[in-house]
Amino acid sequence: MSESAKPHHPNPQGKGEKSHGGDFSYVGIDAILEQMRRKAMKKGFELNLMVVGQSGLGKSTLMNTLFKSKVSRNKSVQSNTEERIPKTIEIKSISHDIEEKGVRMKLTVIDTPGFGDQINNENCWQPIMKFINDQYEAYLQEEININRKKRIPDSRVHCCIYFIPPTGHCLRPLDVEFMRRLSKVVNIVPVIAKADTLTLEERDSFKQTIREELRANGIDVYPQKEFDEDAEDRMINDKIR
Questions:
Q1: CA atoms of 157 and 208, how far apart (whole Å)
Q2: Helix pair angle (126-144, 173-182), 10° resolution
Q3: DSSP reduced 3-state for 34
Q4: Which segments carry the region annotation Disordered (predicted)?
Q5: Averaged pLDDT for residues 32-40
Q6: Global pTM?
Q7: Cα distance between residue 50 and residue 185, in whole Å
């Protein structure tokens, strides 16, 4: 049979045809997670931690232990000079690039030396509150710019670790006032400093007292109830709580 005499079967709907080696029914949604993962790994992550508490509660030690590296501020090693106690709160930031199993993270530790060290600590949280709000404002200004940067530097405080002195009795008025005000603008994680100075019974009793005082003063600490989006999230958050 000649070529011109071959029978022709039209296929107007394109049934059974392939497009670039794939079926028309395949969209590729299953590749989104891998694309997002690759993009996130390429950019890396940013984590800005603020540590707040009186001097001598072990803030630097905890930060260095958490990340298995010297990520907190370096103190003077000269023994003949006493470390100067700031008259006002001095907010200091130090950044590190940390990599673990191919995951890169820019960690910024924001220290607040001078908090709670004075005889009169009235309104000593105001510089910290101003600093946190200023970072939100700077990020917002970058977002609303017409010619905004491809990647906006994120200096917002993602988490505030608040160190509670291990009195074993109750929260101080300073602790309550700080967390009551700051919990509205930042995620607060309260930590009992130097908890090994308490017996297990004292520690458990102190933790229960802190929970009751937080509840009585309407203070929400991380993770807040609004983070319980489903049953799985609630189960994880309850373990943290």
A1: 28
A2: 10
A3: helix
A4: 1-22
A5: 88
A6: 0.76
A7: 13
